[in-house]
Amino acid sequence: MRDDLEDLIFRTCTLMGFFYLSQRADARPVELGFQETMNNVHIARYVAPPEHDPFLWYLEFREKWEKTMGFLSGDEVLAREMAERL
Question: How far is it between the farthest Cα atoms of the chain?
Answer without folding.
Answer: 66
